[in-house]
Specification:
The structure holds 2 protein chains of 2 kinds.
Chain A lengths: L9 H10 L6 E4 L3 H4 L11 E4 L3 E5 L20 E8 L2 H9 L5 E4 L3 E3 L4 E2 L15 H7 L2 E5 L11 E2 L14 E3 L3 E6 L2 E7 L5 H6 L5 E3 L1 H4 L5
Parallel strand pairs in A: 1-2, 1-5, 5-8, 6-9, 8-10, 12-13
Antiparallel strand pairs in A: 2-3, 3-4, 6-7, 10-11, 11-12
Chain B lengths: L8 H4 L8 E4 L9 H10 L4 E4 L10 H6 L3 E6 L8 H8 L4 E4 L2 H13 L3 E4 L13 E4 L2 E7 L3 E11 L15 H7 E11 L19 E4 L3
Parallel strand pairs in B: 1-2, 1-8, 2-3, 3-4, 8-9, 9-10
Antiparallel strand pairs in B: 5-7, 6-7
Helix pairs in contact in B: 5-6
The chains are: A alpha/beta, B alpha/beta.
Chain lengths: 225, 221
């Protein structure tokens, strides 16, 4: 296609997600691009990050002098604890998740369907060695589930689909999708485009999407937002 | 006088039988009872079911136990990770039964076992491959699946400080599955960094009360 537009980088996608997280929210970030989101929440905005291996109030990666092998996140990277943070065991950690105490979980995914189904843990029903971790609990339990992912696969296949082809992580769970091309809400009527990468036309976005897209009203009116 | 401290690894492992279900604490390497796993390898029990978040890395510890053919079945949430070579070899060769459980369901199944709850409904995993065939029911409009408690014959756990009654404290994210597994097994064996005189651990800081712990061994790293 001949459109001239600039897809967002991984960092820009993380920065875009961070913009939408209000102060006071309890947030779990999945592995990959979601983990980068924390770097773009300014320190003065108090957002409390949860890591499912038992850390509430997780801070950034340690400097060379305060590295602590006993303090890791769910991606098994060393992290720090913010002032006011606490430790919990696994059952309490997932009680926070499943009990609806987390305001938000941001996950990566392979596919999101227009009804909010999400697939992010296995690429086929007979994966040689499947592994799920906490993804199903997070997807089922958080008050809001946002997905951040590339809009298409490396070979250009759409990841926003009418129906997931990969094994599901959760049914009807996703509220919003942030891709390198757009911000898209999942509504009872399907996908609604909230924002597009600069220079990208709606037609070009639709061409890269399997499911039918709808334009949010604010996007239809050029004088608005 | 109650004294749950044991003198050595062999004493810690006494009575673990073939066919046992062994809960193993830790999240990756953090909070994992490495010395107890090595001792289980020495002890010789076989045909084991291992319950752990991960399935071992490299060729030591859990991976070694599996490589020796001593594990019939593994129940975990995330077996595949950097360096989980032994697991992948055995799984591909059909020499290891695998049950994948969502991480929170895994923790809750053990908590339920420790709490005397035989089964519970959870929304996690509804409509996915991992809960196929399980009974379902809807509560307040939310579809749920029935999950069974997961008790252990033995739990091998890691903690920071202990006393002779088996009271335990933990270190940061090393806590993870350890307190839950301590509750869920008939025989709970804790590897700890330090043993303090009774009464010196602050009762407000004891995470696992000794009622859940049978044996304590100090292991110096």
């Amino acid at each position: 296609m001949s459109d001239s537009f600039t897809p967002l980088s991984r960092k820009d996608m993380a920065r875009r997600v961070a913009q939408d997280i209000p102060e006071g929210w309890y947030v779990n970030l999945g592995i990959g691009i979601p983990t980068l989101v924390a770097d773009f929440v300014p320190n003065e905005r108090e957002v409390i990050f949860h890591s499912e291996n038992g850390v509430l109030g997780m801070g950034p990666a340690p400097g060379p002098d305060d590295a602590d092998p006993w303090l890791i996140n769910a991606g098994k990277q060393q992290v720090t604890l913010r002032r006011g943070g606490s430790y919990i065991h696994h059952a309490d950690s997932f009680a926070m998740i499943r009990g609806g105490h987390l305001d938000l979980c941001v996950l990566g995914a392979f596919e999101v369907a227009e009804n909010g189904d999400v697939a992010n843990w296995a690429t086929s029903a007979n994966d040689t060695a499947p592994a799920v971790g906490g993804a199903m609990d997070l997807a089922a339990g958080a008050k809001n589930l946002w997905v951040v992912m590339e809009h298409t696969t490396k070979d250009g296949s759409p990841r926003l689909v009418a129906k997931c082809s990969y094994p599901l992580t959760a049914m009807r769970a996703v509220r919003r999708v942030y891709t390198n091309l757009a911000v898209i809400d999942v509504t009872p009527q399907g996908f609604r485009v909230v924002e597009m990468a600069p220079g990208l036309s709606f037609e070009a976005l639709q061409a890269r999407t399997d499911a039918k897209l709808d334009l949010a009203d604010s996007n239809k009116d050029p004088n608005h937002g | 006088m109650i004294n749950k401290t044991v003198r050595n690894l062999a004493e810690a492992m006494q009575g673990i039988t073939d066919g046992a279900t062994v809960l193993v604490g830790g999240f990756g390497a953090v909070g994992q009872p490495d010395a107890l796993i090595e001792a289980l390898i020495e002890q010789g029990a076989t045909d084991l079911t291992i319950v752990a978040n991960n399935a071992g890395t490299g060729r030591t510890g859990l991976a070694r136990l599996m490589e020796l053919g001593r594990v019939r079945r593994i129940i975990c949430s995330f077996p595949r990770s950097v360096g989980s070579v032994v697991f992948e070899e055995l799984y591909k060769a059909g020499k290891l039964e695998l049950e994948i459980v969502p991480q929170g369901t895994l923790a809750e199944r053990m908590r339920a076992a420790g709490a005397g709850v035989p089964a519970f409904y959870t929304p996690t995993g509804f409509g996915t491959l991992l809960t196929e065939g399980k009974p379902t029911a809807e509560f307040n409009g939310k579809p749920c699946v029935l999950e069974m408690a997961l008790p252990g014959d033995v739990a091998l756990i890691q903690a920071h400080k202990a006393d002779r009654w088996g009271n335990l404290t933990y270190r940061r994210s090393g806590r993870n599955f350890n307190p839950v597994m301590a509750m869920a097994a008939r025989l709970t064996i804790a590897q700890v960094d330090e043993i303090e005189p009774l009464g010196t651990l602050d009762p407000e800081n004891i995470v696992t009360p000794g009622i859940f712990v049978d044996r304590v061994l100090r292991v110096t790293v």
